[in-house]
Design brief:
single chain, mainly alpha, 11 helices
């Protein structure tokens, strides 16, 4: 059984640690995080479908048209979900499609590497930006408390968390290693843009687009449920019709913001790095460590754990400051190039 007396969501953890200011700060970070992630997913799916249609000679819809279509399907998935427990099927479909796309992409990279790719051991100026992108890879951390609270067997949470993070970490290490070996300093984001235009790459793009279309409602619903709970938007309090109507309006407004991000900043890699640097680094590193020390009391924590928490917080601040700086500079360059 899940202990209902302890905080179950990110904002509840923030409120337990720092009161209303803590709740509001986490709401802000959570909103920026989810809006940026789903906006980036709309960019990825819309650009993929647009490029495939363009390759077939169909250009009537344009890139923004495809983004709007993808956003509409994500919105439909979001408004249809009432609880996180209802998102299991969407999560499973998203996982299967992403794994299939990754396997195709890795096979393509091995068989079609760039002949003139150059490799460097490391670049100091790119460390913070790299950490920001890595932070984005673990964006699902922000919905973990909501998932735990919706589990039928919450006692299995530690095993579920360990397995899921191991799979995510191993998958990204594999893709990054193969991608850098194959494409070196010419690597593009997203990964599939490095591959030849053939049927296998087309299949991988369709699969990864389906993955983000199915994953986006899960991310958006997690944040929407926290806002709706805080506002008292529940079926028990308002009845079925009023609860659904308010949920529809709130989630539609939320998706309008995320779609605006996708239409206004059409650079997948830049948005990914900026979201990872500004919000995900804080939610992944700073918030958990600071709240843990606050709730436990620093006198009740061993010095080694305190040291680890301090190092994690310093890493998060470094990623936030330096990663945001690098991401903004790259975004400015891409906007300038697009305008020429």
């Amino acid at each position: 059984m899940l202990d209902r007396s302890r905080p179950r969501t990110l904002n509840e953890i923030g409120a337990a640690a720092f009161g209303t200011p803590g709740r509001l700060v986490i709401y802000l970070l959570y909103f920026v995080n989810v809006a940026g992630i789903v906006g980036d997913y709309i960019i990825l799916a819309g650009q993929s479908f647009h490029q495939m249609a363009k390759d077939d000679g169909h250009t009537a819809l344009g890139e923004n048209g495809w983004k709007l279509i993808c956003a509409m399907f994500m919105w439909l998935g979001c408004i249809s979900l009432k609880e996180m427990s209802e998102a299991a099927l969407l999560s499973l479909i998203g996982f299967v499609t992403s794994m299939a796309a990754i396997l195709i992409g890795i096979a393509q990279a091995f068989t079609h590497p760039y002949r003139n790719a150059q490799h460097e051991p490391a670049r100091g100026e790119g460390v913070a930006l790299a950490f920001a992108t890595i932070s984005f890879a673990f964006c699902a951390v922000s919905v973990m408390p909501s998932i735990e609270s919706s589990m039928r067997r919450p006692a299995q949470w530690n095993a579920v968390l360990g397995l899921s993070m191991s799979i995510v970490g191993a998958t990204y290490i594999l893709v990054a290693s193969v991608g850098y070996w194959a494409f070196g300093n010419q690597t593009l984001a997203p990964f599939l843009d490095n591959l030849p235009k053939n049927r296998a790459t087309r299949a991988a793009k369709i699969l990864i687009s389906l993955h983000v279309i199915f994953a986006s409602p899960v991310m958006a619903t997690s944040f929407a449920l926290e806002i709706e709970t805080a506002l008292g938007v529940t079926r028990e309090r308002l009845g079925w019709a009023r609860e659904f109507a308010i949920r529809l309006v709130l989630r539609t407004l939320f998706f309008a913001v995320m779609t605006g991000v996708a239409l206004g900043i059409p650079f997948f890699g830049d948005v990914m790095a900026l979201v990872g640097a500004f919000s995900m680094s804080l939610l992944l590193c700073v918030v958990p460590a600071v709240c843990y020390v606050r709730l436990r009391g620093w006198r009740n924590i061993g010095w080694l754990v305190l040291l680890v928490c301090a190092l994690v917080v310093c890493l998060g601040v470094y990623i936030c400051v330096m990663g945001s700086k690098g991401a903004i500079e790259d975004l400015r360059k891409d906007i300038a190039l697009r305008g020429t």
